[in-house]
Amino acid sequence: MKLPMKPKHSQDTDPTVRIPKVLERLNQAAISHKLILAESNEAASIADWIEANFPISGVQIDWDKVPGHSCLRWHDEDRIIDSIAALTLHLAADSAVIVTWSDALRPSIEMRLRDVMITGKGFTQK
Q: What is the distance between the alpha carbons of residues 33 and 26, in angstroms, rounded to a whole number?
C-alpha cells in the first residue's frame, strides 16, 4: 500500500511526512508496530525517561558520561544491521524496543527487536 505523501513543513509531525520510507517498509513487510506520535503524552513520557536515566548535553545523550556504555558508529547504511546486532546481543529477538530519532518531530516506533533487524536500513532515512 502506497502512503499518500504530504509536503514536508518544518514543524509537521505527521508520520507520513517525517518517516515515509520507514512506514512504507513496515507496511510492505507486514511488521507489527505501534507509532508513538511526536506530540503525544506517551512521547513525552519516553523523553522524560531518557532524561531521567541518561546524562543530557544540549539535546542529546552524553554517552561519554554513561558508565559501561557501548556505542558503535556506522558510516555506511549497509553496516547498520551489524551494529544493531552487536549492541543487542543480550536481548531476545522478541524483546520490545522503541526506535526513536534525535529529531523530536519524528514519531517513535515500538516494535520487536527481530523486526528492527528486518526493517534495517529504513531507519536511516533523512
A: 8
